[in-house]
Design a protein that fits this description.
Shape: globular
CATH architecture of the largest domain: Alpha-Beta Barrel
CATH class of the largest domain: Alpha Beta
Number of strands: 17
Number of helices: 14
Oligomer: single chain
CATH superfamily of the largest domain: Metal-dependent hydrolases
Structural class: alpha/beta
Largest sheet: 9 strands, mixed
Strand content: 15-25%
């Protein structure tokens, strides 16, 4: 039997901070509290003066495998994840081929499991041609689905209104919360065409090509159908004040809508386009200004249920183009926790928000709770131990991505990941990978 005891740490929970011990036996937390005896335990970590968090559940990663490994791959991506304190990732389905039936789902799971440094769950994709696959993919192991309402990597077409209705009906019947990329396809095409006619190529034009209206229009459509079907919708990468207001109204109507934002919308501003150019092109765009301020306020107030990285790597050649031709997205799984931790340690957001936004809620919304996202007896032994008095310097050498493309290189952040523990295995020690590759494929937790 393998055993591990973390002693005297400040355990950070959504409900408060407690100076407790945590004992892990055979990969499962068996005891949490004061004064747990180290007798018979194989390894004891003294976490005095350190913070202890549940392992991060990043609900939004595009690791690019299979089919797009030239951009990055699952081994690099999950090494980056675990080094940054992410112990579970939810992998999105717009790979080649896209995950649109149970056969492709199982093939992807088998391929990735041999390369995983973290535990992982898979989403299926839904569109007009495969709505009949919904139940079979759930039965096979998909924890949820992604629906692309607007143009994105992989060119997956948005569903018709009738298919969207069926998706939300099935969501209600199976208690499945469906993730939505909420940008209206036709409006994106309209505004992009209109903006390109100006002849300009400055990177800030990406904001005009995908204004907040394209988010709002998609959210209103999703919300109206969710309300009438009792479906469960999750809006990912919310980028604007307008989208926040639309979601608030949808909730007032009685629609079951939860929401995610990402660190880049909270930290980067419009002036960063001049510094980084197309590197920070993402969909929806980084808007800055009043939108950034509103998103930060919404995080503090508890409006958002989750924060995901939207990790989306590309090659330097794909990013180093004029704004219209550059690929959208950049890697972020390794910096997700360090960036949010820095905000907390600087007093911008409450420290207790981090386990709620980055662990507990993602696990609850996508059927991984209480196995993941918790520090309670019976949960997976996934812990991140933080030294709040040290710093994380984001350098190319520190990053584990295939291509070191990050707008955060050069930042010195408060707090440092000291240890990462995945199912009782120490996978990061003193900030460095131990080389253990023990990730497994996760299915829905039945409650």
């Amino acid at each position: 039997m393998s055993s591990l005891l973390v002693k005297n740490g400040y355990i950070i929970l959504p409900t408060g901070i407690h100076k407790w011990d945590i004992k892990v036996l055979n990969g499962i937390i068996v005891e949490v509290g004061k004064g747990i005896s180290p007798s018979g335990v194989e390894e004891v970590i003294d976490a005095s003066n350190y913070y202890v968090l549940p392992g991060v559940v990043d609900e939004h990663v595009h690791m690019r495998e299979p089919g797009l490994e030239y951009k990055d791959d699952f081994e690099h991506g999950t090494r980056a994840a675990i080094k940054g304190g992410v112990t579970t990732v939810i992998e999105h389905p717009n790979t080649l081929p896209p995950v649109e039936d149970s056969k492709k789902l199982l093939a992807k799971a088998k391929l990735l499991e041999s390369k995983a440094y973290v535990d992982f769950a898979l989403l299926g994709v839904l569109h007009d041609a495969n709505i009949s696959e919904f139940e079979d993919m759930i039965e096979t192991g998909a924890i949820s689905f992604k629906v692309f309402m607007g143009p994105t990597t992989g060119n997956i077409q948005p569903p018709s209104e009738s298919t969207l209705y069926e998706i939300m009906e099935k969501s209600a019947k199976t208690n499945t919360r469906v993730m939505f990329h909420a940008e209206d396809h036709r409006l994106v095409e309209y505004f992009t065409g209109k903006t390109r006619k100006t002849g300009r190529t400055d990177p800030e034009l990406h904001i005009e090509a995908r204004p907040p209206l394209v988010e709002v229009h998609a959210i209103v459509k999703i919300a109206s159908i969710a309300k009438h079907t009792s479906g469960h919708a999750h809006i990912v990468h919310v980028s604007s004040l307008d989208a926040i207001e639309a979601i608030k109204l949808a909730r007032e109507w009685g629609a079951d809508i939860t929401a995610e934002t990402c660190p880049h919308y909270l930290l980067l501003d419009i002036n960063d386009y001049k510094r980084h150019g197309a590197l920070i092109k993402v969909n929806p765009p980084i808007r800055g200004g009043v939108h950034r301020e509103a998103l930060l306020r919404a995080v503090v107030s508890g409006f958002f249920e989750t924060i995901g990285s939207d990790h989306a790597p590309h090659t330097p050649e794909e990013k180093n183009r004029v704004i219209w031709d550059a690929a959208a997205g950049f890697p972020g799984v390794q910096t997700l926790l360090p960036l949010m931790l820095d905000l907390a340690l600087r007093g911008v957001i409450p420290l207790t928000h981090i386990p709620r936004l980055l662990a507990e809620n993602p696990a609850k919304l996508f059927n991984l709770w209480p196995y993941k996202g918790a520090l309670i007896p019976g949960s997976s032994g996934d812990l991140v131990i933080i030294d709040p008095n040290s710093y994380t310097e984001i350098t190319s050498d520190w990053l584990e991505y295939k291509y070191k493309l990050s707008p955060y290189i050069g930042l010195k952040l408060r707090g440092r990941v000291k240890y990462v523990i995945l199912r009782g295995h120490i996978v990061v020690r003193n900030g460095e990978l131990t080389g253990k590759r023990v990730g497994v494929f996760l299915k829905r937790v039945l409650r």
